[in-house]
Specification:
Elements lengths: L1 H105 L6 H13 L24 H8 L11 E2 L5 E3 L2 E7 L9 E9 L14 E6 L3 E4 L8 E9 L11 E4 L16 E3 L4 E3 L32 E2 L16 E3 L2 E2 L4 E8 L5 E8 L14 E7 L5 E6 L2 E4 L7 E7 L4 E6 L5 E6 L6 E7 L27 E3 L14
Length: about 500
């Protein structure tokens, strides 16, 4: 009966998943129908507008050319009419002189003939007819203003719809998530020199699996991208996933969006395990400070409260990811004597993880690193084979040392305001960085035989100057007291985070 119920539950779950997929596909089809109607109307209006603009250009060119012809005709008409008028007057004057000469020749009077002949000769010499150019000043040929539309006609007859740019494809294997940034890389099926730019859209999502049509978060748009990649900066990895899509655009039209790609943007999150702390340490979820009274009256959160953390959600159960560290011993004696240590509540047994630690400027001595579960209750960080750390001594003279297995190496680098810790479990790499400048301070290379746990230690040899008080926030020191405070910032990464690709 129990097996049958379990089988029925699996069938029910499979049907529910399939129903959800069909429902999402129906939403996609309905959205496509709405988009088709809207896009068809839009391109029809755009085409009508383009032809109207083309007609306007042709009409304007026609008017300009007609004006040019009219101006040319008017200019030539004026030149020819002026020349015709001058010739007509010269001809009229010449005819009068001819008539006068004929009359003189026919006259029988001899007394005034000589003078009359001389006057006629002088008049002929000065006559306009002999000063005229008998060549037309303007041509009647207007063929230079003829237009050959054969090429333009062929171009218009060859007018076609502009090719839509090909759909890009996001290269998931090339995408990177680190340093509060996400770099998206895509390619085209074939080169296209007509592409002017790309449009990238991204939005947050809390759903695992394929992207969904209906989401609570809107698409954020990045326009004018000229390259085949883009880096989004200034992010905060406080969401489970981010979905991306991209499309190409030429001068007039945008192509289809690529298939959406969902990337996980989890950061490595953990809290401090107060049950592991030395009795002189006062521990809260994300901070620890010296408590001279030795009291540790704190509320231990129940395991069910951890379900709100995305690091322990069911969606991550199949991942190679950090795991909740079991409490070695209940109570207050996990670390004792001079091992002023506290561990995190999450183990690292795979993958690449990163976290940062900020500390009070008045801190005199502390260590930050990782430890194996086998770290002894009397062991100090770095003084056994089960721990690795960076140790700061800020008493009389500042010193920064890397410690492991009771061996110390002095580091020649400035004291950072915050320390970044990077673990590559498979590669056996443990690196410490200046979290602000990204400068590498030291790297341990080994082979981790057991899961690692983030570990912190406040080393106090003269505790009389330390006064217990409320923890500071982000290095802000309270007046009139001195303390050591650690503050983890998993939701404000500045170097590396865990990435899962779908």
């Amino acid at each position: 009966m129990g097996d049958q119920k379990e089988s029925l539950r699996k069938i029910t779950h499979t049907l529910a998943v399939k129903n959800e997929e069909i429902s999402n596909f129906i939403c996609t089809l309905k959205q496509s129908l709405d988009n088709l109607e809207a896009n068809s109307s839009r391109v029809q209006e755009d085409l009508q507008s383009e032809f109207t603009n083309l007609h306007s250009v042709l009409d304007e060119m026609k008017e300009n050319m007609l004006t040019r012809i009219k101006q040319e005709r008017a200019s030539r008409t004026y030149e020819l009419q002026s020349q015709l008028s001058a010739c007509s007057k010269a001809l009229e004057s010449s005819e009068e002189l001819m008539e006068l000469a004929n009359q003189t020749l026919c006259s029988s009077e001899t007394d005034g003939f000589t003078q009359a002949a001389k006057d006629i000769k002088d008049s002929v010499t000065m006559a306009p007819a002999f000063r005229l150019s008998l060549k037309a000043k303007a041509s009647d040929n207007m063929s230079h203003l003829m237009v050959d539309f054969s090429q333009e006609r062929e171009m218009l007859q060859g007018l076609k719809f502009l090719p839509v740019p090909a759909t890009p494809e996001i290269q998931v294997s090339e995408c990177q998530v680190c340093d509060n940034t996400v770099t998206i890389v895509w390619t085209l099926p074939e080169p296209d020199n007509k592409i002017d730019h790309y449009i990238l859209e991204h939005r947050r999502t809390n759903h695992e699996g394929p992207p969904r049509i209906r989401e609570d978060y809107p698409w954020m748009v990045v326009e004018g991208i000229r390259e085949l990649d883009h880096t989004l900066m200034g992010l905060r990895f406080d969401t489970r996933y981010m979905t991306f899509r991209v499309r190409a655009c030429n001068k007039a039209v945008a192509g289809e969006f690529s298939e959406p790609v969902t990337l996980e943007t989890h950061a490595f999150t953990f809290k401090l395990d107060s049950t592991s702390a030395h009795q002189n340490l006062k521990v809260e979820d994300l901070s620890v400070e010296w408590d001279s009274s030795g009291g540790k009256i704190q509320d231990i959160r129940k395991e069910k409260n951890r379900t709100n953390s995305p690091m322990h959600s069911p969606a991550r159960s199949a991942l190679m990811s950090p795991k909740r560290a079991p409490t070695a011993r209940p109570g207050r004696d996990r670390f004792t004597a001079e091992s002023y240590t506290v561990l995190a509540d999450t183990m690292i047994d795979a993958g690449q993880q990163y976290w940062e630690v900020r500390f009070d400027k008045e801190s005199k001595a502390f260590a930050v690193g990782v430890a194996l579960r086998s770290l002894g209750r009397f062991d100090q960080l770095g003084k056994s084979s089960a721990s690795w750390c960076i140790h700061l001594n800020n008493w009389l003279q500042q010193s920064l040392t890397a410690k492991h297995n009771n061996k110390a190496r002095t580091l020649d680098c400035p004291i950072p305001s915050s320390i970044g810790v990077y673990v590559n479990y498979e590669e056996g790499v443990l690196s410490f960085y200046n979290a602000k400048t990204k400068q590498l301070m030291h790297t341990f290379k080994t082979k981790f035989q057991q899961p690692l746990i983030p570990a912190f230690m406040i080393n106090v040899s003269s505790p009389q100057f330390l006064v217990g008080s409320k923890p500071c926030v982000l290095q802000r020191a309270s007046m009139g007291n001195r303390k050591i405070v650690w503050t983890m910032c998993p939701q404000s990464l500045q170097f590396q985070c865990f990435l899962r690709r779908h």
